[in-house]
Design goal:
The chain is of the alpha+beta class. It folds into 3 domains: 33-65 and 296-447, no CATH class; 71-103 and 234-292, no CATH class; 107-230, Alpha-Beta Plaits (2-Layer Sandwich). Helices cover 44% and strands 18% of the residues. It has 14 helices and 20 strands. The protein has helices at 11-22, 24-62, 123-127, 141-145, 165-174, 295-320, 332-336, 340-351, 359-373, 376-381, 399-408, 410-418, 428-447, 465-516; strands at residues 71-77, 82-86, 95-101, 107-110, 147-152, 155-160, 180-185, 190-195, 206-207, 213-214, 227-230, 236-239, 242-243, 252-255, 258-262, 269-272, 278-281, 286-292, 384-386, 395-397. The strands form 6 sheets. It has a 5-stranded antiparallel sheet, with no helix packed on it. Strand 14 (252-255) and strand 15 (258-262) form a beta hairpin. Helix 2 packs antiparallel against helix 6 (295-320). The longest helix is centred in the last third of the chain and has 52 residues, at 465-516. The radius of gyration is 39 Å and the shape is flat.
C-alpha cells in the first residue's frame, strides 16, 4: 500500500483514476476472451447433445434392425433347445426343427493336474507339482527362468517359469491372428485350446517346439501330458423334414427370416442314411411360428420423433436466440459493485445469443429439415407429417396410421428409415447420422471439442480455431498488463518526485520565513 505525502493529495485515488482510463483496452480484451470462452463452452454443450443423438439414439438404437421389426418369433415344444428372433423379412412359415448335432470346435485337451491347482499359479509351481494354498517347496532361479514353448497355427510362443497360467492364457488369446481360445479348468487342471470358428472351417494346429520344453507338458499328470484331440463337428439340423445341406458350420442359423441360436440337441441319437436323410431317435423337436407385433416399432418411432423434435428445437433456439450487445461480461470492479442476483441476471443476458445465426447450426438444421422434407410424401403415407411453417421443421406422428402401415408393409417402413443391404447410408437415419457427424467435425475444428465423446468436462484441443484465438488474446492481455503495471509504477514515481520537490520547496520557504521573522 502506498502512503500519501505531506501535501494532502490522495495519490492512490489519483493514480487509480488515471489508470482506469488506461485499463479500458485491457477490459475490452478480457471481455472478448470471456465471450469466446463462453461460445466455446456452448459448442461443447451442443456437442454433448449431438453425440447422444448420433451415437446413443441413432447408431445404438434406431438404426438396429430390431428397432422397427414387427415380427415376433414364438417357440413351442422343446424351448430349451433354441433361442429364436424374427427379422423384418420373416415370412410367417411355420417351422418344425430338430437338432441332431450341434456344431463344435476343433479342440486339444491335456489330461490335467487334477483338483488343487489355480490359474494364478506360475508355470514353475505347476511343473514342480506344488498345489495352490499348500506349503510350497522353494523354487530356484533355474525353475523361474526355464522356458516353455508351444507352436499354435505356425506361430511359436515362449513362456518362462515366472508366467502364471492366467498370463499364458491372456497371451495366447490376445493374438487375434491365431483365432483360437485357450482356457484352464481349475477343477480338473486340464488346459485346452479351441478354434474360435465352429465346425469343419475352424483351424487349429498345435505342435511342440522344434527344441525345448513343451508348454502342454506342464498340464499333464506325469512328466509328459496326454493330449486328446477333439474333432470339429458341423451341425446337423432338420427343418420341416428336410436336412439342411450343406451342414451349418455354426450354431446360429437363419431360415425364413428367423435367426435361431441352437442351444442343445433335440434327439438322443441319429443316423445319416445313404440317401443323405437323417433318422432320429428320441427326438423332441421345437416349432417356430411368427406373430405380427407393431407395438415395438411404434414405440421406436414415437421415441425417434420426440428426440428429433427436441434436438431440432434446441438448434433453432440457439440460432434464433436474442443477442443483447449492450450486456458485456462484467469486469472485477463491476462485479464487486453488484449483488449476486444482479450478476446472475446480467450474465444471463450477456450469454444470450452466443450462437445466434451460427453457420454450422444453421446449416445442420436446414439439412435435417431437408432430409425429412424430401421424403414427406412417403412419410405422410405412414402417418408422419410436418408441422406449421412457424414450428421450424417439427414433425408429428399419427399412431393409428403408422400401425396400419407397419403391419401392411413392414419392410417398406424399415427401408425408408434404416435402408436395406448396403444402402443404409441413404436412409433417413443414415443421412441424419452422417450430417450430425459432419457438423460435429466442424465444431471440433472450430472449438477444439471431440466428436468421439459427449463429455461436457472434456479438455479442449488448443490447436482449434478458437484455441489459437484465445492464445492470442492471452498473449495480448499479458503484454498489456505488463505495460499498465509499468505505467502505474511510473505514475507513482512521478508523484513521489513531485512530493519530494514540494517538500524541499516548503522547507526552503519555512527557512526564509523564519529568517525574515527575526
Amino acid at each position: 500500500m502506498r502512503v500519501n505525502g505531506f501535501s494532502g493529495m490522495d495519490i492512490d485515488s489519483m493514480v487509480k483514476e488515471l489508470m482506469t482510463a488506461k485499463r479500458a483496452p485491457l477490459d475490452k480484451l478480457n471481455q472478448k476472451k470471456t465471450v469466446l470462452e463462453w461460445q466455446r463452452d456452448s459448442y461443447r454443450d451442443l456437442n454433448s447433445k449431438m453425440y447422444e443423438f448420433r451415437n446413443t439414439k441413432l447408431q445404438q438404437t434406431y438404426r438396429l434392425s430390431s428397432a422397427l421389426n414387427t415380427q415376433k418369433a414364438v417357440v413351442a415344444g422343446n424351448t430349451d433347445a433354441v433361442k429364436a428372433e424374427a427379422g423384418a423379412t420373416a415370412n410367417g412359415i411355420k417351422m418344425d426343427v430338430s437338432v441332431a448335432q450341434l456344431a463344435t470346435a476343433k479342440t486339444i485337451v491335456t489330461d490335467g493336474k487334477e483338483l488343487g491347482y489355480s490359474s494364478r499359479q506360475s508355470l514353475a509351481e505347476l511343473a514342480n507339482g506344488i498345489k495352490f494354498g499348500q506349503p510350497t517347496a522353494s523354487l530356484g532361479d533355474s525353475d523361474l527362468t526355464k522356458e516353455y514353448k508351444i507352436k499354435v497355427n505356425n506361430v511359436e510362443m515362449t513362456f518362462t517359469g515366472k508366467d502364471t497360467v492366467s498370463s499364458v492364457i491372456a497371451k495366447i488369446n490376445s493374438k487375434t491372428e491365431l483365432n483360437v481360445q485357450a482356457s484352464f479348468d481349475e477343477l480338473t487342471g486340464k488346459f485346452s485350446i479351441s478354434a474360435k470358428d465352429l465346425g469343419s472351417t475352424g483351424i487349429l494346429d498345435v505342435q511342440p517346439p522344434s527344441a525345448g520344453d513343451y508348454l502342454l507338458d506342464v498340464f499333464g499328470k506325469g512328466a509328459t501330458a496326454t493330449i486328446t484331440n477333439v474333432a470339429a463337428k458341423d451341425a446337423v439340423v432338420v427343418i420341416n423334414g428336410v436336412k439342411i445341406d450343406p451342414a451349418p458350420k455354426s450354431n446360429i442359423i437363419t431360415y425364413n427370416g428367423i435367426t435361431m441360436n441352437l442351444q442343445a440337441t433335440t434327439a438322443s441319437s441319429f443316423v445319416t442314411n445313404p440317401d443323405g436323410t437323417v433318422t432320429l431317435t428320441g427326438d423332441k423337436p421345437f416349432t417356430i411360428t411368427t406373430q405380427s407385433d407393431p407395438d415395438k416399432a411404434l414405440e421406436t418411432m414415437k421415441s425417434f420423433i420426440e428426440d428429433y423434435n427436441k434436438i431440432l428445437a434446441l438448434f433453432n433456439t440457439k440460432v434464433g436466440e436474442e443477442k443483447y450487445r449492450s450486456f458485456q461480461p462484467l469486469t472485477k470492479e463491476q462485479r464487486s459493485a453488484m449483488s449476486e442476483s444482479d450478476v446472475k441476471l446480467w450474465e444471463e443476458k450477456a450469454k444470450s445469443g452466443l450462437l445466434k445465426n451460427d453457420d454450422i447450426l444453421s446449416g445442420l438444421t436446414s439439412t435435417m429439415r431437408n432430409i425429412m422434407g424430401e421424403k414427406m410424401g412417403e412419410l405422410s403415407n405412414i402417418g408422419i407429417t410436418g408441422g406449421k411453417y412457424f414450428e421450424n421443421g417439427k414433425i408429428y406422428l399419427d399412431e393409428e396410421k403408422f400401425k396400419k402401415a407397419i403391419i401392411n408393409n413392414p419392410q417398406q417402413v424399415a427401408d425408408l428409415f434404416q435402408g436395406s443391404g448396403a444402402s443404409t447410408d441413404s436412409s433417413i437415419f443414415g443421412k441424419l447420422y452422417s450430417e450430425m457427424d459432419t457438423a460435429m467435425s466442424k465444431i471440433a475444428e472450430r472449438a477444439g471439442t471431440t466428436k468421439f465423446s459427449g463429455d461436457v468436462n472434456s479438455i479442449y484441443k488448443e490447436e482449434s480455431v478458437m484455441g489459437k484465438t484465445l492464445k492470442g488474446y492471452t498473449k495480448e492481455i499479458t503484454a498489456l498488463e505488463r505495460r499498465l503495471s509499468d505505467m502505474e509504477s511510473r505514475y507513482y514515481k512521478q508523484f513521489t518526485a513531485m512530493e519530494t520537490a514540494m517538500s524541499k520547496y516548503q522547507s526552503q520557504a519555512s527557512s526564509l520565513s523564519s529568517f525574515f521573522a527575526r
